[in-house]
Every structure is written in structure tokens, then in C-alpha cells.
Amino acid sequence: MRIIIVGTAYPLRGGIAHYIALLREALVRRGHDVRILTFKRQYPKLLFPGKSQEEVDTGPSESQEKLREQLAVTDIVIDSINPIT
Questions:
Q1: Which of 4, 46, 68, 70 could form an SS bridge with 10, CB 3.0 to 4.6 Å?
Q2: The pTM is what?
Q3: Cβ contacts of residue 63 below 8 Å, gap of 6+?
């Protein structure tokens, strides 16, 4: 089955982004073709409390490989503050 997940995903940080990555992995293991549509940014800079909305890469090389795979199936097309997208 072909599945598209719309939500916050890598390279954006946060619990929902990590959950979506785990959900995608589980669906792929079951034989599904899964793509993710995610946001260019979660919040406007004025409202964002942290320094960066993107995940900081600090893990071992194995996790870097998973992150590259995640980016390959993620389309960054939605702007959370632009209703046209």
C-alpha cells in the first residue's frame, strides 16, 4: 500500500517528528511504500522559543545513515504560516 504521512518530521526536531520516523519505519517493515510531507518551519521566528527548529546531528554514524534515509523519503513542502501551501 502507498501511504503519505503529513506532519512534523526530520529535519525538524521534537517528539512528534521522532514518532513519525518510528511510524514510517514500522510501516516500511510491513512492506508499505511510505512518504512523508513535512513543514519548512514549525513556527515563525518571532514565536519560536529555541535557537533552532531543526534537529542537531550529534549521534553516531549509524543514526546519521537513518537520518539520510529519512530525508530521502521526506518532502519539505508545507509552510506552517503560509495558507497557500
A1: 70
A2: 0.68
A3: none
DSSP 2-46: EEEEES--TTB-SHHHHHHHHHHHHHHHTT-EEEEEEES-SS-TT
* Best CA proximity match to 20, nearest among 62, 55, 44: 55
The residue-averaged pLDDT of 51-57 equals 60
Residue for grid cell 542537531? 56
Positive/negative CA dihedral, 3, 8, 13, 17:
negative
Model pLDDT for residues 33-47, shown as the tens digit of each residue:
999 988 877 766 666
Rounded-to-10 torsion of CA 11, 31, 23, 58: -40
Q: What is the pLDDT of residue 11?
A: 76
